[in-house]
Amino acid sequence: MKLNIQNETSRLRAVVLGTAVSNGNTPTVEEAYDPKSIEHIKAGTYPIESDMTEEMNAVARVLEKYDVKVFRPEIIKNCNQIFARDISLVIEDKFIKSNILPDREKEIKAIQYVIDTIDPKKVFKAPSEEIHFEGGDIIIHNDYIFIGTYKGEDYPDCIVARTNMKGVEYIKTLFPNKIVKEFDLNKSMENPRDNALHLDCCFQPVGKNKAIIHKEGFRDIKGYEFLVDLFGKENLFHITKDEMYDMNSNIFSIAEDIVISEKNFIRLNTWLRNHKITVEEVPYAEIAKQEGLLRCSTMPLIRD
Ligand SMILES: NC(=[NH2+])NCCC[C@H](N)C(=O)O
């Protein structure tokens, strides 16, 4: 397979879509690695496998409708494999295995059968365990690579901070011709409304020149201002804390003028349609309880 990814919105041809099959029992609070999951574990409202499987199948049906080749991970028993985005990423024609949170390391072997179809010279793995990065923090935007990170001193104890500056430096070495720009994000293990878990939880380009953004997700306001300058204020759709919590920035583009979005995102979906973007609505509120949505559960391999 010949990979090609230059941005988040060109016409999609092939993608990995995660799976909720054999997702395991409801984790304990200690086992969870994000605050929104913890909230639902405590409230007894943690999502169940059959509901999540149904939601993901709805996404698969939309992708098939647009003739996108869909790869699913092999099933690892009792393992949460929903968020395919984080375990690896594709930039240009390179496949990069993430140095992910140790709790999630075993997820990658389920897509080895996909990796086996790629030229081994194009497959990369960071050389040191001190280099951390996950796909949800990395957004490719033509000449730019945007990377979410966390520069707080408590990084080592912060399991919602998944990409460090060593990760940013590593991506820079792989793409010397790109402008790599990092963003220091706000993290909170206590309150999901204050937690920009990954960059794609508070920002994502959409359409040709637009983006969805949550200003308060940026720990360093200069990062937010940089994006305002680059995209232009009139091209940004600002979301509130509650909309970030519901994961509005985490929709998924099939093309510049086609997105998959959650059916309850009324304000966002209206804005998209007003900009002549076709919105394919799916139910994804159960998946959202684990602090991830459509971008998080998809990992594009080929776009035009
Ligand atoms: N790309 C993303 N934003 N992924 C969300 C992953 C959510 C998952 N609960 C985690 O904490 O790892």
Automatic annotation (TrEMBL):
Top-level enzyme category: hydrolase
Keywords (A to Z) from UniProt: Transferase
GO process terms (BP): L-arginine deiminase pathway
Reactions catalysed, as given in the entry: L-arginine + H2O = L-citrulline + NH4(+)
Pathway, per record: Amino-acid degradation; L-arginine degradation via ADI pathway; carbamoyl phosphate from L-arginine: step 1/2
Gene3D superfamilies recorded: L-arginine/glycine Amidinotransferase, Chain A
PANTHER family: ARGININE DEIMINASE
Name of the protein in its database record: arginine deiminase
